[in-house]
Amino acid sequence: MPKVGNWQLGREMAYPYEARFPERQFAFVFNINRCIACQSCTMACKSTWTFSKGQEHMWWANVETKPYGGYPQSWDVKILRQLQEADPDGQIWQGADLDQRFGPYGEFKGKTIFEAAETHFDPESSRVLGYLPTDEEWNSPNIYEDNPLGKPGVRDRLDPKGVELPVHDTWFFYLARICNHCSYPGCLAACPRKAIYKRPEDGIVLIDQQECRGYRKCVEACPYKKSLYRGNTRVSEKCIACYPRVEGTDPESGGVPMVTRCMAACIGQIRLQGLARLAEDGTWAEDRQNPLYYLVHVAKVALPLYPQLGTQPNGYYIPPRWVPHAYLEQMFGPGVGQAVERYKHPDRELLCVLQLFRRDNRIIFRYEIEEGPLIYEGEYRGRPVTLYNDTVIAFGKDGSELFRTTVEEPLYVRSNAHANSI
Fold first, then answer.
1. Are 317 and 303 in contact, with CB atoms under 8 Å apart?
2. Residue 85 is part of a domain; what is its CATH number?
3. pLDDT tens digits, one per residue of 230-245
4. How far apart are CA 11 and CA 320, in angstroms?
């Protein structure tokens, strides 16, 4: 197989095709610390794209409870076990240096799902390590919801250790997921029909419905299980990143690039979606005032989901601060410790960028900050805290201002005439 550069792994890896990159790549950051599993994103996607016959099991967007939940059930545990069996004791990272442009999380020494398939998969024609979920594993999109890891609680009594940060003894968290529109998609690599492709304008991964013959190789190969087979049409379908909205051709957009339906519906304001500029080698080009670039490459609080799989996913997550780091590291890589620490103690710029999450339906291409007055001085876990009411301004593709917001959210007091209107 050809060799391609994977900046998340810090090395070259084997992939069935030569590397090709769009000028801009669809990408997103989810802040897990804010997710409340309201499922607004799930239902927004469902009511838009997968409400027809044969799509009953299709949840292109879903929110699952970790550590036990998953849709399909145990999708991540199964693929990690397969990698471990293919490369025993090889799943390790070395030399993490978050200031590097290539390989900030270090070099991954183990095999990816593409490399492991060369020696540990049958039939020989298979290009990607993977598996087909059973029908039962597709049955319960909310299995083990709100089930924590830890000892059972006592009714009407708080756990004396489980109520304090930084790490809880009893814990769970919500993992919101959509297709990661990977730079090296497993689904694309596995398709014998070459029916799957990345759009050159934004890197969104799509399935050509005319070319697909329903072999389900994409379902088998996608490690995140975001390619799904539709029985009544006998073709596969997947998240299309609401590309009419992203490209500005949706009737609602008025020609302006907009965020996807799941992003727009997010009540918890956990989501920030946009387009990252790419360099010729597939790394992110310098774009200092793009909020996605800032979160991933400057503040370094946003990390890829299971980067060791080798797909170079374009979905990034701000890890939950209350979860044991060992669990988070196998999910997001070696950058977890620093990411959590920086999120717990944000600097002035990070506080501003966090205000951009889900404040508008239009895609933010650039931001600026106007400094504001001092509003708070104090101490947090032994460290001094200074807050300023800065204003962050968001700009669109054409450079025009989209909106502006402040660090200190305004307080609205309901008048007496409407105090009990509910």
1. yes
2. 3.30.70.20
3. 999 999 999 999 999 9
4. 28
